[in-house]
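Researcher: Next entry in the queue.
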Amino acid sequence: MRRAVLSFLLMFAFTVLFFSSAYAGWPPCHDIVRAEAVGSTINVYHDQAEWNCCATMLFELFEVQDTFNLLEFETFEFGPCVCLCCFDLSTSILHVAPGEYLVRVINGHSGGIFGEVWVTVEEGPWDEPSLGGIAQSPCGGWGVGVEEPASSTWGRIKALYR
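Model: Structure for this entry, 162 residues:
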């Protein structure tokens, strides 16, 4: 009995040590939300967004008076992997009428607010606001000032986790 308990404790200690050292090198994600108006378009950025590393992100837009609520959802082609990544995400809100707006980025699964920012839209052609394109960085964010070459190994690594 003692041998079984000792074996269990050693396995538990090894597991904790392994995973704590494996994740110690990765800094945590910090959810930075920012937005800027360009004409009648509001460009919204969610930097260092922590999501599953195999996720493809989607946004939904809901307008309530002077507030744009952007809901972020993670979707999966084959299911989630056993890892998390910091992503840089961006989208646009098109055809916005002139005025001041609160842009709020919300976790579409839990309802938690990642961040919010006020934006002033100047004159420009406007209509019914709609969501523009979505950009998602590779795991770890966009490289600063350097164009990263496409990696053929990233697809293989993701496939190992599926």
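Model: The radius of gyration is 21 Å.
Researcher: Noted, moving on.
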